Amino acid sequence: LAKTTQPISMDSYEGQEVNITCSHNNIATNDYITWYQQFPSQGPRFIIQGYKTKVTNEVASLFIPADRKSSTLSLPRVSLSDTAVYYCLVGFDRGSTLGRLYFGRGTQLTVWP
Amino acid sequence: DTAVSQTPKYLVTQMGNDKSIKCEQNLGHDTMYWYKQDSKKFLKIMFSYNNKELIINETVPNRFSPKSPDKAHLNLHINSLELGDSAVYFCASSPEDRADNSPLHFGNGTRLTVT
């Protein structure tokens, strides 16, 4: 199972770019990397997914180096409304007959005015 | 047009009681899940159902019993509630089980407080 490690918390100011890095040293060949965002009193929400190199959508960019042992979620010009918990999620436990989706603790991002 | 809805949003009860949380999704997804989130934001999978059949049962006490009357519904029944059951419970769904890149769609959670 590809366990992930990410910082527990980060702080930023409005208008800055925020990069949150997730380590997943034992990622498997077929694993994708997915990031979710969770606002207070809401369920997590999918924001971006990638397999390698770079993926960009209207919300964020995801950078994945060639060895895929880490990934970086980049949020351009954050605003107060980007304050949330961000979860990095990698693949499945393919050694089992069951599929598992492990989220971990996530990174609490706080954006200040 | 809520995609994944769960009720109630808040549930306060006493130790020893039995309670249920309901979940419905209107996305036509095949797989539904229950997650538990503790006070430190750790989000842990509890159960997963695919087309009404249980496919994941993490090490959850047997006081927790999921029930899926059809593939659009996955309810969670909890017997003999304990203080440690206090948490936020999230229902989720996805198009396929074990699919690499089908994202999960979550409900807004049920905050359970056991006193």
What does it look like?
The complex is a heterodimer of chains A (113) and B (115). Chain A has 113 residues and is an all-beta fold. Chain A is built from no helices and 9 strands. In chain A, a hairpin with a 5-residue loop joins β6 (61-64) and β7. Chain A is globular and about 40 Å long. Chain B has 115 residues and is mostly beta strands. Chain B is 0% helix and 55% strand. In chain B, the strands form 2 sheets. In chain B, strands 2, 4, 5, 6, 9, 10 and 11 form a 7-stranded mixed β-sheet that branches. In chain B, strands 1-3-8-7 form a 4-stranded antiparallel β-sheet, with no helix packed on it. In chain B, β7 (64-70) and β8 (73-78) form a beta hairpin. Chain B starts with a strand and ends with a strand. Chain A binds chain B through residues 30-32, 34, 36, 38, 41-46, 49, 85, 87, 91-92, 98-106, 108, and chain B through 4, 33, 35, 40-45, 48, 55-56, 58, 90, 92, 97-98, 100-101, 103-109.
Number of strands of chain A: 9
How many angstroms does the end-to-end distance of chain A come to?
A: 39 Å
| Number of discrete helical segments of chain B | 0
The biggest beta sheet of chain B is recorded as: 7 strands, mixed
Using CB atoms under 8 Å apart, which protein chain pair has the greatest interface? A-B, 27 and 26 residues
